[in-house]
Amino acid sequence: MTNIAVLGAGKMGEALLSGLLKAGRAPAELMFTERFPTRAEELAKTYGIEHVEVAAAVQRADVLVVAVKPQDIEPLLDEIAPKIPGGKLVVSLCAGLPTKLYERRLPEGTAVVRVMPNTPMLVGEAMSAISGGAHAEAHHLDLVEELLSSVGKVARVPEGQQDAVTALSGSGPAYFYFLVEAMIDAGILLGIPRDKAADLIVQSAVGAAAMLREGGGHPVMLREAVTSPAGTTISGLRELEKHGVRAALIDAIEAARDRSVELGKAHEIDED
């Protein structure tokens, strides 16, 4: 039995705990830390999982899943570094934080796996990218992939690509929501009630995503299948190109990548 502790039971931490339970993990294998008593009580009651202090989690769990906000990582590492025994696997869900940050602060030889999930984890449809640190072995990556497969799909990438992954799939849902919001507003402008416009667009998004994933077609081919000569779609696409929507999306993803790099460098400076 592998005991797993989630350090920081926010939305992502809760989603992982819920997914692990749905995948068949016993509540006795799971525990979590949470600094707000009301929140801790709510989660323990909802899922039947034990709420523990950080010191207990570090001692009892085989896998420590760090799910705090990046700005809260320093005090957490200060707390766990003197207490963590050898042989623990540390899994970081913190955006922008490199494995070497943990390796410098934790005992020599600690295995660390860096993960970039995204918020669809909340509905079991996450896209998570994982990368092993200097001491992470194949069996560590296998275990992390097994755990995260309970809440979506998993891809292994070199850690050097994690900042790009953060910008692309980590932040990606926000870009889709932004486009959907704009399309709903367009529907209202054209005289369709908001709730009806939302139904039309959300289902269109669900269907389009299913065709991308299950149909195996390239986005260009799928787009061209909707685009008739001199039709409505090509007129709309012309306006998107005219206003530079494609270039704006690329710029947005590059900016998100740059911010992820900045987050990591800030902690590297603290370490040097």
Automatic annotation (TrEMBL):
The keyword Amino-acid biosynthesis applies. Residues 159-263 form the Pyrroline-5-carboxylate reductase dimerisation domain. Pathway: Amino-acid biosynthesis; L-proline biosynthesis; L-proline from L-glutamate 5-semialdehyde: step 1/1. It is found in: Cytoplasm. GO terms for molecular function: pyrroline-5-carboxylate reductase activity. The keyword Cell wall biogenesis/degradation does not apply. Its EC number is 1.5.1.2. It catalyses: L-proline + NAD(+) = (S)-1-pyrroline-5-carboxylate + NADH + 2 H(+); L-proline + NADP(+) = (S)-1-pyrroline-5-carboxylate + NADPH + 2 H(+). Pfam families: F420_oxidored (PF03807), P5CR_dimer (PF14748). Residues 4-96 form the Pyrroline-5-carboxylate reductase catalytic N-terminal domain. Coiled coil: none annotated. InterPro entries: 6-PGluconate_DH-like_C_sf, NAD(P)-bd_dom_sf, P5C_Rdtase_cat_N, P5CR-like_CS, P5CR_dimer, Pyrroline-COOH_reductase. Keywords: Amino-acid biosynthesis, Cytoplasm, NADP, Oxidoreductase, Proline biosynthesis. Belongs to the pyrroline-5-carboxylate reductase family. Catalyzes the reduction of 1-pyrroline-5-carboxylate (PCA) to L-proline. This is Pyrroline-5-carboxylate reductase. It comes from Saccharopolyspora griseoalba.
